[in-house]
Amino acid sequence: RFRIYADCTKGEIPLSNPYQEDQKMPKKVLVIGSSLREKSNSEALADAFAAGAQSAGNHVKRVSLNGKTIAFCRGCLACLNTHVCVIRDDAVAIAEQMRQADVIAFASPIYYYEMSGQMKTLLDRANPLYSSDYAFRDIYMLTTAAEDGSTVPERAVNGLTGWIDCFEKARLAGTVFAGGVDGPGDITGHPALKTAYEMGCQV
Questions:
Q1: Which pTM does this prediction carry?
Q2: CB 8 within 8 A of CB 20
Q3: How confident is the model over 41-60, as a mean pLDDT?
Q4: Distance (Å, whole) CA 109 – CA 200
Q5: CB atoms < 10 A from the CB of 14, how many?
Q6: Which one of 57, 61, 107, 176 has the minimum C-beta count within 10 Å?
């Protein structure tokens, strides 16, 4: 689907690609999509990022929250001692995948100028990672919205940055926003797909 873009491993991407320049070891890249809609625009953006990261030789895992059971955090803080949530649902396995990943990319539609509720709930449920020996360093944010404008995703990005700030070894490494996409599949042909792919190449 995304093979129209340059192959990261064949020198067709500018030399800003750190995998190309430094011959780094493959990274574990986790791409999490939070949209629950079929033919989701933000999921397409996540797929493009994942395709780029895989093309660069990384080990990529795609996770969708669609169909997952993720309850609200109860605030009991037991996880700070046990390193695992007391609520046994799909969030437990996803949090463990987050802990093991070197790179995490979150994809979300913009709802009321914020990230989706599903994504925020997952971040809350990832609290066991706070006191763990987490591997992730670089975090990416991929967003889509019906409204087009550079400021549209700011609150969502700030929300993710608040989560990242609690992990001193992690940083926000990049963002991609596709505006002007409303209906399912509207993102087809949008230049943000290529941007996401190329950003994936550079993880």
A1: 0.89
A2: yes
A3: 98
A4: 19
A5: 11
A6: 61
